Amino acid sequence: MKNHVDDDKLSAYTLAPSFCDDREEIEQHLSRCTECRERLQLCEEIESAFRDPDVWAAVDQVRTRSARLEAAREEYLRIEKEDADAEALLEPLLKTSSRFREADIDGDSRFHTAAVVRKLCLAAHARHEKLPQFSLLITNAACRIALQLPKGRRERRLVLALAIRERANAFRYLGRFADGLKSLDDAEKLFDQSPGTDPWDLAIVGYIRATIYMKCERLSEGAELARVSALAFREYGDSLRELSAIMAEACCFALAGEPVRAVAAFERVIAIARTTGEREMLARALQNAGVSYLSAAEPSKAVPCLVEAMSIFDEIGLATERARSMWKLATVLAGEGRLAESARQLDEARAELLRLGLGNDAALATLEWAEVRLSLSQPEGVADACSSIVIEFESEGMRRNASVALAYLHETLRSGSATPTIVREVRAFLAELRSRPEIPFEPLLGKFSPGVS
Amino acid sequence: MGVGMELCRGSPMQGEFCVEQSPTLLQRFIDELGLKATEIIEEANRIALEEGVESISRQHFLNLRQGRASATAERIYIIVAAVRSLSGMLIRATDLFLLQPATTGAAPQWSQAFGSSSPTPVSVSSYRRISGAWRSMVTDESRLTDVNEFEALYTEYGVLLRSIAIRRYSIPPDDAEALVHDIFTAYLQRQSHVRELKPWLMGAIGNASKDYLRKRKREEPLLPEHDQTADQGAEDKAERWMVKMTVATVISRLGEKCRETLRRYYFHEESKESIARELATSPGYVLQLLVSCRKRVREMYDSMRSSK
Lengths: 453, 308
Description:
The complex is a heterodimer of chains A (453) and B (308). Chain A is mainly α and 453 residues long. Among the domains of chain A are: 7-51, no CATH class; 349-453, no CATH class. Chain A is built from 21 helices and no strands. Chain A has helices spanning 7-15, 23-32, 34-50, 53-90, 97-103, 114-127, 132-148, 155-174, 177-190, 198-215, 219-235, 239-255, 259-276, 279-295, 299-316, 319-335, 339-355, 359-375, 382-387, 396-415, 420-433. In chain A, helix 7 runs antiparallel to helix 8 and helix 15 packs antiparallel against helix 16 (319-335). The longest helix of chain A has 38 residues, at 53-90. The termini of chain A are far apart. By secondary structure, chain B is an all-alpha fold. Chain B folds into three domains: 16-96, 434 Repressor (Amino-terminal Domain) (Orthogonal Bundle); 131-223, Orthogonal Bundle (Rna Polymerase Sigma Factor, Chain: A), CATH 1.10.1740; 234-307, Winged helix-like DNA-binding domain superfamily/Winged helix DNA-binding domain (Arc Repressor Mutant, subunit A, Orthogonal Bundle), CATH 1.10.10.10. Helices cover 61% and strands 1% of the residues of chain B. Chain B has a two-stranded antiparallel ribbon. In chain B, helix 7 (146-169) packs across helix 9 (197-216) and helix 11 (256-267) packs across helix 13 (283-307). The longest helix of chain B is centred in the C-terminal third of the chain and has 25 residues, at 283-307.
């Protein structure tokens, strides 16, 4: 045999050599041909594999995997379709809160799907900041629909958990912190069916809770919870949420009057955000670090942070934050005794803040400008600028306290007794008012009765 | 200055790729698979020598792991090839390195900046669909539809997740399969919330595996190096195992008639006559079927081996 033995013959030879007509020829060829011997060896290995229990176990495993893949594929398609249907149903209704309310979707069985609940959570999330009442309305509907889903459906518990968690978020934005915490308690209990992802879902709950604690001045609890949440997010490579959680931890430190710890945490955010390329997060962390450095009496470290923050805000088009950074830089200048420069920059910053609709910030910047101008013994225009200050607060009590403080300021300006210290006192009071709404204004310098002109 | 401060500050240098956050993807892989850095470097440099490309120093590799340096395409190539060779998995460059900018998520929302009146951190659960991220991760071809991308992700990334469960946590293969499936199902329900899918899945398999072990009150999982092989005998064993697994894959792709006839004849050692009776046909036909099925197996086997 001159040519190589073909695969069919080799295969037949492996199966039963005695049945091969040209057995001798094959064996002679094999004795001198390495290539054919190797091919024969492979044939024998394959033949042996056919008899191997491990191989058949693996075959069954692969086939089971295929069945699983098929199941996952079907699940994917089912969710895609449900999501598309939900989108089509909800899209026209979510344009305004009145249209949404009128639609009464929880009374309509077409809306009773897990996808509708997921979409509602998504829609609410997008509205928390600007339309918090509407987002609460949406999350309430989501919760009611989730509860109406058939009890046997495995996703019912999860979407209910998601809806309640989102409702907690809506409460947070509305300042209804007790309701928010109660919702978080409820949501927490429902995330218990997926060991792989429960820690992550619970970390989101923990993060929201931490931010509520922060708002309620439960600062040490908030900082600890934010820290733990950040670790969980890190485990899932969820860098943006990790950064948010560290930022919350840092804010708790800042509010607790611990600027050194706050700076350390903000610097961690800065380091991570630089590597992950989260530009906006980086800019915010820089800005916050700058402010904390100021609180820690380290203006030289604050300046580079604020300058870089301003430049990034400028680059990404966040004009409001750029204006705030500009304002804080002017504060640094004042702290360094460069009063004329500071007054110029504050004047620019307050005009920009006002132009951008940031009334409260513009008011505080104006007071800071007034303080610097009085320090420069340049009171011209100060009384006029201060008389146009308007500060918005949510509650009647806060508005009343703010009015008292401003009336006191106007009175001292009118009488010519205003000093930089008085302006600083009023400014500090107004800046603190949101976090301490119940404390009335009491000037340190001299007695003052509201209503006395 | 913190770790990785020099990275990604601006655009990466031309011809270089930005290495991302700490822990980097590379570090996570090394940890999850229990690979040894020294072995990766040795293997990478062996490949570099073969391919005639630049080798990598220990220090550079350390910096890459810690996200403190960037790598050229050639170095990424030798590292990926080395990890493939050591782990036996078809790992892609994008599994180990961030080679393209992350898809931008919803911008974090702040109601106010800290310093104006009170600090408000970003809102937490911004949503984002990530089919685009799948695309960049699973394949470079954008023509695939989403469901195909999902399937590719399930198949290809599932291998890695199973390996983590099996190798790092010593979870039996069948149970590891089930855990991976559960994670993908859980993901589908949360896809709007997940921002970075790959690390998320890795976090999920880690926690699912730990929960599995907790529930079974198992002892500490074996360390990955316990089952590493180095000698020639072990390599031969590994090669035989590869042949068997390739044959198994081929058989699983055969039609049912072929597969079950082979199973009955070889594994259950049924006679041709018995099989013929069951199939209501002649023993001659069964023999013919066996020959053609074996031939098909051989062809598919050759095709699979040559493509590797």
